[in-house]
Design goal:
With about 150 residues, this protein is mostly helical. The protein is built from five helices and no strands. Helix 3 runs parallel beside helix 5. It is elongated, with a radius of gyration of 21 Å.
């Protein structure tokens, strides 16, 4: 008999976060064209919040190389893409763990699907591989071919 939804609900939330972030990254990649003269969106938001200070536009401009810790839109999208990968991987992993623990399939199924869709938006090949691996794992668990699953 299936019980609880502790891990399943966690998988659902992680999967939903990864899917929303993946849609944002997908839309940015699809519709944005890099324009060095455009206003920096991330820097403006952080300047408005008081986290960083934007450069004075009246001073002389000097070009310097962008470092890994530089605050720019490309680094922000890369940072978000990295978080999509690990959020989706955790959502899928926790969903399989919840299936192993025989939790209610309502939340864990949605968490697995959301994580899979997030990976599919970023890289279709890896997304399909994640779906295949997850489906095989669930079939093996449900057919009791994995030891410890009763």
């Amino acid at each position: 008999m299936r019980n609880g939804h502790q891990f399943g609900a966690t998988s659902l939330w992680l999967g939903a976060l990864s899917l929303v972030a993946a849609v944002v990254v997908f839309e940015i990649d699809r519709y944005s064209i890099f324009d060095p003269t455009a206003h920096p969106v991330v820097l403006n938001v952080l300047d408005h919040l008081g986290v960083v200070r934007a450069p004075d536009k009246s001073r002389q401009m000097m070009l310097t190389p962008a470092y890994i810790t530089s605050v720019n839109d490309a680094n922000a999208v890369g940072f978000l893409r990295l978080h999509v990968w690990w959020l989706a991987a955790w959502a899928i992993g926790i969903a399989i763990w919840a299936e192993f623990k025989k939790e209610s399939t309502l939340y864990l199924s949605a968490g697995f699907i959301f994580g899979y869709l997030a990976l599919l938006l970023l890289n279709p090949l890896i997304g399909m591989a994640a779906l295949a691996v997850g489906a095989v794992a669930v079939v093996l668990l449900r057919q009791r071919w994995v030891s410890g699953y009763r």
